[in-house]
Amino acid sequence: MKARIIHWCIHVLDKEASIAFYERALGFHVAHEMGPDDGSWSNTYLVNDQSPFEIELTWNRGRTESYANGGRDTHIAFAVDDMEAVRKLHEDMGCIVFDNPRMGIYFIADPDGSWIEVIPGDFSFGE
């Protein structure tokens, strides 16, 4: 069998706020969007230039209750090339929710509370 990860789907309450967050925090941009003509829901796919992986933002019109998208243990991770600059950006955005200086990593949360791990590009578990 051959399989590869292609996207991570999260449900969002405010699609525009989520798009803006992923654009600023991780350099993603909208690749394409789909949904019915009546606009009752949409799937917006975000990409960046570093990999073919997509983030799928699923939005449903009229939804006001938060979704259970996971949390601390259910997360996605991004390796970044300039940890110092990216961390400063995330500090300025106020989105850091957990810091683990011993491991050299930290977590940010998107507008819907989904946790995202940020690790240095040269990260390794071995010592």
Commentary on this structure:
15% of the residues are buried. The model has no long low-confidence stretch (mean pLDDT 90). This protein starts with 6 loop residues before the first strand and ends in a 7-residue tail after the last strand. With 127 residues, it is an alpha/beta fold. The strands form two sheets. It has a four-stranded mixed β-sheet with strand order 1-4-3-2. Strands 5-8-7-6 form a four-stranded mixed β-sheet, with helices on one face. Helices cover 18% and strands 40% of the residues. Strand 7 and strand 8 (115-120) form a beta hairpin.
Overall pLDDT score: 90
Secondary structure tally, helices: 2
Radius of gyration: 15 Å
Strand/helix succession: EHEEEEHEEE
The number of E-state strands comes to 8
The helical percent reads: 10-25%
Strand order of the largest sheet: 1-4-3-2
Low-confidence stretches: none
- Tell me about the biggest sheet? 4 strands, mixed
What is the general shape? globular
Q: What structural category arises from helix and sheet content?
A: alpha/beta
For the termini, the CA-CA separation is 33 Å
User: Strand share of the residues?
Assistant: 35-45%
Q: Layout of SSEs?
A:
Layout: E1 7-12, H1 15-26, E2 29-34, E3 41-48, E4 51-60, E5 76-80, H2 83-93, E6 96-100, E7 105-109, E8 115-120
Parallel strand pairs: 1-4, 5-8
Antiparallel strand pairs: 2-3, 3-4, 6-7, 7-8
List keywords for this structure.
40% strand, 2 helices, globular, 127 residues, alpha/beta, 8 strands
